[in-house]
TrEMBL record:
InterPro entries: YqzN_YkzM
Protein species of origin: Paenibacillus motobuensis
Organismal lineage: Bacteria, Bacillati, Bacillota, Bacilli, Bacillales
Pfam families listed in its UniProt record: YqzN_YkzM (PF26160)
Superkingdom of origin: Bacteria
Residue ranges occupied by any YqzN/YkzM domain in the UniProt entry: 10-61
Protein name: YqzN/YkzM domain-containing protein
């Protein structure tokens, strides 16, 4: 029987560390990351989670 592939567990980083590296990780300024994380209760996020939040923030329709 073939084994199921293992799920990759992603590391989580403190919000401050993600903001310090926002330009390198997400190609946005730290201020954009602050806006994307507005209302998020977590103190740590994975890079993938943060990228998803930034993407949805940037694509949000302006009223």
């Amino acid at each position: 029987m073939a084994d199921k592939p293992e799920k990759k567990i992603e590391s989580k980083y403190p919000i401050k560390e993600l903001m310090a590296n926002a330009e390198a990780l997400f190609s946005v300024r730290p201020e954009v990351l602050v806006g994307a994380l507005h209302g998020v209760k977590a103190s740590e996020l994975s890079v993938t989670e943060a990228k998803s939040l930034v993407k949805s923030f940037l694509e949000r329709k302006v009223n």
